Structure formats: structure tokens, C-alpha cells
Amino acid sequence: xxxxxxxxxxxxxxxxxxxxxxxxxxxxxxxxxxxxxxxxxxxxxxxxxxxxxxxxxxxxxxxxxxxxxxxxxxxxxxxxxxxxxxxxxxxxxxxxxxxxxxxxxxxxxxxxxxxxxxxxxxxxxxxxxxxxxxxxxxxxxxxxxxxxxxxxxxxxxxxxxxxxxxxxxxxxxxxxxxxxxxxxxxxxxxxxxxxxxxxxxxxxxxxxxxxxxxxxxxxxxxxxxxxxxxxxxxxxxxxxxxxxxxxxxxxxxxxxxxxxxxxxxxxxxxxxxxxxxxxxxxxxxxxxxxxxxxxxxxxxxxxxxxxxxxxxxxxxxxxxxxxxxxxxxxxxxxxxxxxxxxxxxxxxxxxxxxxxxxxxxxxxxxxxxxxxxxxxxxxxxxxxxxxxxxxxxxxxxxxxxxxxxxxxxxxxxxxxxxxxxxxxxxxxxxxxxxxxxxx
Length: 439
Fold this sequence. Notes:
single chain, mainly alpha, 55% helix, two-stranded parallel sheet, membrane, 3% strand
């Protein structure tokens, strides 16, 4: 049975599947796409590939300036509360309420700004902000280090993600559990009680797991490969230069990333010592934690959806992996302005990772006619889409060249039409040189 929408009265529109999602669900039988990369590239005007260092620096400078303004606002919260309390004769409850309201305002907007710094660092990791490699490196190192992300280490594994998107053997992140992992009986023998006993959860426990993943998941992935590719040994870490994540030639850059993170942690420790940990907690760590929540939200939703396929090696191609991506208008103008459209135009980004983010809206419009029904867009409200994917994307089958997520009752919303799923490698590889340059 399909999942019923949440009943929240007049706010029910916040908990409804978008028309685009409903339309994809109607196409129950899925045929893996055979779209040529050459055709996709041919649809994009050449001028959209051009990078402007000046324009990119303006975007970075504007973003950092806004973050500084948010910080300056926070440093004046106590004085604002004092003056307001005197002017309006506020009691203890009023002062406390105003204090919490102003801090909550700061925490939200600074977390949005920190997330934007991370997305700009992500662009640098793809050499997408400037035609000069050193400019991308300096900017990316500074932006990512500020939000405690090891720049070079994450750059390496993120590029691997682009080279193997939704490939169950090669992708780096958000690897789904299989029926075997959950020790479920075979699909032909499993009963509703089997699913209920093995994987059904209470809403409260699901919410607890979501909170842990949203706020700590990204750092746990960096520290010990949580939810990363299971092909790596236990406790594989982005901070270990000898990690299986990297090749020997990456060793020095990983060490540099570690030193940068160490310097940032030292700065935070000194800041706490000279002021107080509470001060640094309020000004830095609370928005930093919330920024991780936003980062996990859009990175998870980009490829984890009940209607999006995963591929095993035999059926995977670069184009199919790039198309296993969903464009979402995450938080509307906030996502466009502060997060530079990282969720709005992610399909185009997967085909053209080195095109600057400010050109991706035009790229998206240019390639839509080529992609046709294989272009996935979903305007489902973000928080509901997150809950939907977290509760319905439970596991996949351990066999099959093309698989879809199944929910806690062992049901999938789409299925692959029987027949060959592999494709003519020559057809898909046409134009692969340019695709390889981008990834």
C-alpha cells in the first residue's frame, strides 16, 4: 500500500508529495536510460563553460561579508536585550524570551551562511570557480577548513562519488543496506511479520536516528566512514593519509588538510580560553551543527529517493549515474542565494562538474529536452521529502543489476522491466572524454 500523507490540517501542503514525484510513481515500470553523453554536451552553449575569477570572488566575498555581519549582530545581542529591557520595562521572562529569540535568529542565519561556505568550497574542489587552480585551492582550503571539513581528503572521495554515482560497487556515500544486511528472508518467503519484527521502527526511534544522522552524520563519515562504501576496512578515515580511500600520491595533500584542521581546532580552543567555551559554543558550534544538518539534508536527498535507481556494475554507466539525481528547490530562495543552487541544479552539476554554479540554471534548461522523462525534479517540501526518504528508503535487494529502495514493508514504488539492463558501451561512452574531464 502507498504511504499515506501526514494529516496536519491546514498545513497539509507541507506534508504532500509533489506532482512531479506522483508522476514518477505512475511510471512504475522503469527502463534504464540510454542517453548519449555527447548529445547532452552538444546541447550546452560553449560560453557556459567559461569561468570568471572576478565574478566568483565577488560571490565568495559577498558570502563571507554576510557571515561577518551575522557575527557582529550576535556580539551585540546582550546590549540589545539590555537596552530593550530598559526601554520597555521587560521582566525576567521577557528578557529571557527576547534573548533566546535573538540567538535563535542568529543561529539559523549563521548556519545558513556556514552551509554556503561549504558549498562554495565544494565548487572549489571541482575547480569550478576559477580557471586558475591555485585560486580554487586557496579559496576551497579556507572555506572548508572554517567549517572543519578536510579539503583535499573530501575532494578526493567526492570526485570518486561523481565517477561512480549510485554505482553500488564504487559510490562513496549513503550506501543502502541490503536484504542480507538486515537478515531478512528472501522476498518470495518473507511475510509482513518478518518485516515488522526485523525493521519496523517507532516514529520516535526513527526521529532519534534522524537527529543523530543530520547533526553528526557527516563528521562521523569523515572520521570512520559511517554510511560510506562497505568495501573499505572498518574505521577507514578521511584523516588518515594511508587510508584505502586515497592513493599514495594523495598522501602529502591529506597531511596538509589535517594540519589545516588542527590549526582551526587550535584557534577554536584559544578563542574559548580567552573568552569562554559558552561564547564559542553560541557563536560558532551551534550554527556549525545546524549547518551539518542542512548539508546532510540536501546531499542525502540528491540521490536517495524511492523513485531513483541504484545500479550494479553490469548495468551502470556514467550517464545513468548522473541521471540518478533529483533537482530540488530546497528552501527556495535561501537555497539559491546562500547555497548557490547546489540542490536546485544538481543534475546539470553531475554532467558538468567544472561549470561554475552561476551558469548551471542555464545548463539545466539546455539539457532538459535531451534528458526528457529521465530528468528528475521534485518540489516536495524539503522536510517532508527528507522524512519520506528516511522512512521509505530502507533497503535494497542484494541481487539485480538495477534496484530500487524498498520500505519497511518490503515494497518498492518502481520496478525494472524484465530484460537486458546493460547497454551498448560505445553508445554511452560517446563523448566520454569530455565527461571524464568534468568528473
